[in-house]
Design a protein that fits this description.
By secondary structure, the chain is an alpha/beta fold. It has helices at residues 4-19, 37-47, 61-65, 81-90, 107-119, 150-153, 165-170, and strands at residues 2-3, 26-31, 51-56, 68-71, 74-77, 95-100, 121-122, 125-126, 131-138, 156-162. The strands form 3 sheets. The protein has a 6-stranded parallel sheet with strand order 1-10-2-9-6-3, with helices on both faces. Strands 4-5 form a two-stranded antiparallel ribbon. Strands 7-8 form a two-stranded antiparallel ribbon. Helix 1 crosses helix 2. It is globular and about 60 Å long. 34% of the residues are buried.
């Protein structure tokens, strides 16, 4: 377990790695509901002067996958909304994609989330280089990624966080 305020320092270092093009584990803050994970990640983006693209893990599959289209006998995937919006935001300045409640994604959405987070692309539609990704989930749903290979899950950095009085008082 790590204090949420200390976890944000780890997340910031990770964001710097992602923005520099280094291979980095995607941080996933995991803690009890309502302790401030989302609020503090939003505040971190503001303090860093980054655009924040917040989204819930409850988004439908099409948001991650795009839609198949056919033209002149060939099928291709449209740019997923997630990639299109994030890339538009990143044209202004560095952007943090914060995907909240990843534990509520259904298994089909999780597959696209893993490709997106680990490969930084969906169907050959790449994220711009100045985009970093962070996620959060509730502790009670720690098994939200059942059925996935350890090799996939090991590419994420799960930070089991807690909030104490000092964290609240200092905010």
């Amino acid at each position: 377990m790590i204090k949420l305020s200390n976890a944000l320092t780890v997340v910031w270092e990770n964001i710097k790695l992602q923005l520099s093009g280094e291979t980095a584990y995607i941080p996933v803050l995991r803690g009890k509901p309502g302790i401030g994970k989302s609020t503090l990640l939003k505040e971190l983006a503001r303090k860093l002067g980054m655009n924040l693209y917040y989204m819930s893990g409850a988004k439908p599959l099409e948001y991650f996958s795009g839609l198949p289209e056919t033209s002149e006998g060939e099928t291709f995937w449209t740019v997923p909304e997630l990639v299109a919006r994030a890339n538009r935001l990143s044209m202004e300045r560095d952007t943090l994609i914060f995907i909240d409640d990843v534990h509520i994604m259904d298994s089909q959405v999780q597959k696209y989330f893993f490709e997106f987070a680990l490969e930084r692309q969906l169907h050959n539609h790449r994220l711009n280089r100045n985009i970093a990704i962070v996620a959060a989930m509730n502790e009670s749903a720690a098994s939200g990624f059942e059925g996935f290979f350890a090799a996939v899950l090991n590419r994420f950095m799960f930070l089991n966080v807690y909030m104490d009085f000092e964290d609240w008082y200092l905010e």
